[in-house]
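Kindly inspect both lines:
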Amino acid sequence: MPQRDVVSWTVLIEGNRNAGRLNDALFAFERMQFSGVEPNRVTMVNALSACASSGVLEMGVWIHDYITRNGWEFDVILGTSLIDMYGKCGKIEMGLCVFESMSEKNVFTWNSLIRGLALAKNVEEALDWFFKMQKEGIKADEVTLIGVLCACSHGGLVERGRQIFRLLINGNYGFSPNIKHYGCMVDLLGRAGFLEEALEFIEYMPFEPTKAMWGALLGGSRANGDLKLSEFSVRRLVELEPENGSYYVLLSNLYAEMGRWGDVEKVRRMMKEKGLEKDLGCSFIELEEPKKDVFELLTPLRSHPI
């Protein structure tokens, strides 16, 4: 294109973000700065979303500074995007400052704050804001309750989580729990050592259990030394993904720990027959992972900071 304006660049950034090409989205955002084109609010929302998903705090802070320098108001969409970015990048205290400076907020704004506090393991504060949200008449949605139950899980607040889930079951929030809410409860109970109750949640819920659920139960059973339930959980993972070599390695290691060497050999033969490798780099539980700094991938531009 002989000419590119803010719309052209924003469409390119948004397209890469939607396609999951976060590095390319942020690279385009940097190139836009060097070309002399000023971003608008839509540009910033898309760039902040890419920063949040890839954990690039440095660029997110630059965007915040740009907004402040230029006197932009933190409207609902832009403010919520900033809170979401800070929460996912581990700086929720900065997100809280943005939240308190906003004159208008919606349920998405509150969700971003509560989720960010839950991720930062500020459990009591996350619950305090949840109760404050209700007092201010903001109706919680499904995402709100996922954030609240995650906070209970991280803080080991088993009884509080049970109470909230009971209210959810009884329809107090206006909707029924979905599979993610059940997953949060399995994680909460597994972490706290209530393994039988966690297994009951999986067996009696109205959904097919997911890999994350069995992984959470496995993590809880391993932490509490329940080898029998650990074996049961790994076998369920193998059934879900029979071509995933890491599950067979887990099962083999578990049998070795139990002294069941005959079963170890069976698992190894099974792997050989299936042509599977010992891929120990594959995670079986969906955990928070450190985000890779996209600036490492933008070496040609490092000498020209925006």
Residues 178-278 form a domain with the Serine Threonine Protein Phosphatase 5, Tetratricopeptide repeat fold (CATH 1.25.40.10). The CA atoms of residues 114 and 130 lie 7 Å apart. DSSP finds 16 helices and no strands in the chain. Residues 280-306 have pLDDT under 50 and may be disordered.
